[in-house]
Amino acid sequence: MTLLNGNERAARSPALHHDSFSYESGQLFIEGMSVNEIADAIPTPFYCYSAATISNAYRLLADKLGSSRTSICFAVKANSNVSVLRLLSDLGCGMDIVSGGELERALAAGTQPSKLVFSGVGKTRAEISRALAVGIHQINVESPAELDAIRDIARSLGRRAPIVFRVNPDVDAKTHAKISTGKKGDKFGIALEEIPELYAKAEASPELDVAGLAVHIGSQLLDLSPYRAAYERLADLVKTLRSRSHQVRRLDLGGGLGISYDFGAGPDVGEYAKIIEETVSSIDCELTVEPGRWLVGPAGLLVTEVLYLKNTGNMATAIVDAAMNDLMRPSLYSAVHPVLPLQNIDGGDSSTYQLVGPVCETSDVFGSYEGLPKLREGARLAFGCAGAYGASMASTYNSRDLIAEVLVDGAQFRVIRRRQTIGDLLALEADAPWQSSNTYADAATAL
Ligand code: PLP
Fold first, then answer.
1. Would you list the DSSP string of 76-113?
2. Residue 3 alpha carbon to ligand 1 centre in Å
3. What distance in angstroms lies between residue 375's CA and the mean position of ligand 1's atoms?
4. Catalytic residue at 360?
5. CA 215 to chain centre
6. Residue 156 and residue 153: Cα distance in Å, rounded?
7. Per-residue pLDDT tens digits for 415-431
8. pTM recorded for the entire structure
């Protein structure tokens, strides 16, 4: 997998996403920075994001959605680094959060509560209280039981809770089964036919400000037709509710816009905007979308180094220092991320390698890659399109620390999350008092 040169890129991908990655004299660059230079300063593995790619994506989407006056709330789950959130927030982007932790991150990034929407099937009472206390713009209600909880909490706080109902439209998003959320039987949302009764009940509660409806049918949608089906159902439901004299002034259209994981163009955002225009913009509601992956996915690299080479069966295998705990998507969804050598010598020998991580799981495999340069121990590679659901899904499995995140802006870079140490991890744990006393004094200096 190699990046296209400038002319090829322009011919193949009129979109924006990958203009920030290029090879210059055989060296991979992210914006104006050689990735090798960053890797000389920061131990691999680490994540590295292009600020320009994120800003350009936001501006393009805002521009395409401009005519329908749709506001954008970034799905924080895709990349929850506070510096990334601040970058988007400073551009005017709101945030879609799914936990109290994400709420604090969005606030820490300077996002106004009036630009926050709170999704998710299992909000705790503490999370709901905090969201109401800070003056959140909207809570997306996912069940009748949650509606009761929000009403009770609002009453006890003496506040009105701004809510919309998340509808399950029973539409097949035609994506991976594990990231499909809008089919009957999925755990998300409330069945269409249950909404009118709940809407009436909520409107009768003075503690609730019932603003409208929300829908989110899944993630990584490459075929846009399910959006049309879902939004048409939503528009029909608005008509039904209005015919019963209910006020519907807001529609949250969810996220899910997919990206191409091979540096291709991906779905056409203009087409997405057109679907919104044609299905819901005439019904006179404020509109919101909640993209995550599309805004940040193409902007990120996971930079890694080859530890060892070995043959497994007939396959040349490179064991790299990044693993499934750093980037879970390959083992969780069988996702394949493109691989870019940090140094690419034109015309050199190439070979096929299976790339695997060090974690003790058979599924810790990134994939099999053709056309890589001959690898040696210490060679550096980057997994591309790793800006979404990479760092934010990472775990410390195998007691591997969470790796650093770096933001590049032009010719400068900055560590925006330092790498965890084993000391950080051990500091959270304690022996029980009845266990033998500890003789291990200083975890931090052990590694
Ligand atoms: N909104 C909600 C409610 C979600 O659950 C998700 C992710 O699944 C998103 C938005 C963002 O999805 P994506 O990153 O695919 O745009």
1. GGG---HHHHHHHHHTT-EEEE-SHHHHHHHHHTT--G
2. 28
3. 37
4. yes
5. 17
6. 5
7. 999 999 999 999 999 98
8. 0.93
